[in-house]
Amino acid sequence: MSAAAARIAGIDIGSSTTKLVLLTEAEPTHAIADSGPEPLRTAQDMVAQHAPDVVWATGYGRHLARSSFADGVVTEIKAAAVGARALHPDSQTIIDIGGQDSKVIALDEGGRAIHFEMNDRCAAGTGKFLEVMAGRLGFDLETFGRRANESTQAVPVNSTCTVFAESEVISLLARGEPSDRIARGLHISIAERIVAMVLRAGGPRAEVVFCGGVAHNPCLRALLAERLGVEIRVPRHPQLVVATGAALIAREAVVAAASPGS
């Protein structure tokens, strides 16, 4: 199969959403859907709709995909590194905040992952945490980030555990604290947690890329830039970075298989 003519896909099967990036001779196309209660079925339907010749999977559901339809699998760390470098060639620090985990990946000058920090043991500092806190304050996610960003004052929230933070927010509301100030306090607590992960990973190195669905949040972007003292690069579709990396890795595999002597 010619790599140039092949329809090659990368699919990122996450806990909250499933993302597919399709590489063809024309412009890349993509699809995003809620993973739902049956993420494998969601991924299968997405692949069937786009009919790639080759598909590599990443994310939480990659091993299920391997036994079902995937031609190969790759870790989220490697896929994120490849995807980020393709979109921002000078990137050496990746902040990836998804629905259920947060990752910070340090790359060397050649783009290889040399260190990473991951929070995947609880929802603290993840998209799920933001979703729960927004709902408790009566905001949708977009309004939550915007109101927190516009607020000039913050009410400190001491816990980043979802259960304890929710209880703390309830108490603050009962005390009459404004919702937008609580929202900013919640964002500050997340930013401080992520900054600590960046520092453990060696500090911000060269260009910093923020990916994952949470990168759409304007308050978190601003807080991270302020506390790290660097400009934060956010790709046009930050939630597609990992799927893009998987697709590029799949294409490399097709090229290698087609090479003489392979």
From TrEMBL:
A single MF term (Gene Ontology): iron-sulfur cluster binding
Cofactor: [4Fe-4S] cluster
Organism (species): candidate division KD3-62 bacterium DG_56
Pfam family, one: BcrAD_BadFG
Domain ATPase BadF/BadG/BcrA/BcrD type per the UniProt entry, residue ranges: 10-250
Descriptive protein name: ATPase BadF/BadG/BcrA/BcrD type domain-containing protein
Source domain of life: Bacteria
Keywords: Iron, Iron-sulfur, Metal-binding
InterPro entries on file: ATPase_BadF, ATPase_NBD, CoA_E_activase_dom, Dehydratase_Activator_Redct
